[in-house]
User: Fold this.
Amino acid sequence: MREAAAVLRRRQDDFAALMSAEMGKTLTDGRAEVGKCAFNCDYFAEHAEGFLADQPVDMGGPKAFITFNPLGVVLAVMPWNFPFWQVFRFAAPSLMAGNGAVLKHASNVPGSALAIEQVFVEAGFPKDLFRTVLIPSASVTALIEDDAIAAVTLTGSVAAGRKVAEAAGRNLKKTVLELGGSDAYLVLEDADVEKAAKAAAAARMVNAGQSCIAGKRFIAVAAIRERFEQALVEAMNAYAMGDPRAEGTKLGPLQSVKARDEIHKQVRDSVAKGARVLLGGEVPDKPGAWYPATVLTGVTAGQPAHDDEVFGPVAAVIEARDEADAIAIANASEFGLGSGVLTSDLERGERIASKALDAGMAFVNTPVASDPRLPFGGVKHSGYGREVSAFGLHEFVNVKSVVVGGS
Assistant:
């Protein structure tokens, strides 16, 4: 696993260029993604043995302990938006736990899928321990039904999650599902507006807004809503569209024209139902899957920008009366992946983040981010189970109780 990290670092530029070619990621973001994958490999190389160590249990007599055994082969159905990170997020802990892996990647990133398999080959992993299959989504059910597959992990849409969960349930196989989100950030009246706007823009624009944990709904209390909007427009305006292969580009094209058109329809439908465009919101007159940084205000329930996941560079500002109202609006969503609180009172932010928000992750004054050291996952329609950290590694092991009695 350490050698896999070394291979990733040696070929960082190559893999970043591959992601840029396949799904439009900027080279800067691609290099950072590969570096994160390498850190992930090193982390589990260092910590997996401790996570898997037998845990003694005092039963007042016989020897008793809990041991962790691999399940077998884990099938991973992965998306295109983070073509390397999504895979290594599952692969490093799963392989270190003693499992094998089969990857069914998104159909628009086959080069990344094959390159990841080659990383493990170059690193010297046992033959066929990690394999990529280039198959259509319609063939996934047959894989799940195969006796060779012990468990399934999927990152994708709610619809895809339902299908995988249904097939796995019929076959009584363990699943972990990460199904996206519509992350809410509370902007409280005591927030530093300029800092809050910059944090919000950074949260919204990660990977051109094509991230399950990108900030999407910014719920600002009425007292500062207008000032926050003005600052957010200024911060978002700094994300200019450009060639993703050019150094310094902050906003590349989206992954496809079809995806771009779907996002624009969500914007138009929201405006038709009362939202107002403060920035962007128009399809550029040039070929390609381009969409500008966009800010909507007047966003209310019943609009796509409020109710649905907008998977692109569109920030929705929602007004709340006060803290309690902001929390209620945030929690009314069907999703519950990430969430944020922007406030100058850290104790207040910690209280809301830890106790009040219905989400698998809650960050105060900083954008939500995945990290190998923290469990990653959500609640409600954002899925179930956890990835990375000790919790993620333990998802795909047999947690076995052992008791050794007298002779």
Notes: The first helix runs from residue 2 to 10. The first strand starts at residue 55 and ends at 56. The domain at 2-180+377-404 is CATH 3.40.605.10 (Aldehyde Dehydrogenase; Chain A, domain 1). Residues 241 and 251 are 5 Å apart (CA to CA).
